[in-house]
Write a structure and sequence with these properties.
120 residues, mainly alpha, 3 strands, 8% strand
């Protein structure tokens, strides 16, 4: 157990509790967020923001998945989801569904095009 003034371990439950404001689960749009949901910033960090919120806004100037954000911040997905829900509710971020595999071009067609280009 750490004494007063000592730093918490990165994944200590106390730190995660403080980061999420004591919420065990994210509120609001959590059903829309999964590991592959793409997140993109719609705002820049403002003074007074929680450091993790500011980091998310900075890193998501291009779309990143919830799993990637979790890995970059070295935080559990449940904690990241709770923090993202705050930013989504404030309109500072936008969640986008990943591109469905059905919308991707046919692999055989791409191979044929590549083969044709190589023969030029």
């Amino acid at each position: 157990m750490s004494g007063p003034g000592e730093d918490w371990e990165e994944g200590a439950p106390e730190r995660l509790y403080v980061l999420t404001g004591g919420r065990g689960r994210a509120r609001g749009r959590t059903a829309d967020l999964d590991l592959v949901t793409l997140i993109v910033s719609r705002d820049v960090p403002k003074p007074g923001l929680q450091p993790e919120h500011a980091a998310m806004l900075r890193m998501c100037h291009y779309p990143l998945s919830v799993a990637e954000i979790s890995a970059h911040l070295v935080l559990p997905v449940s904690t990241v989801t709770a923090l993202l829900t705050d930013l989504l509710a404030d309109g500072r971020m936008e969640a986008r569904a990943p591109i469905p595999t059905a919308a991707l071009p046919d692999a055989d067609l791409l191979k044929a095009v590549m083969h044709g280009l190589q023969n030029l």
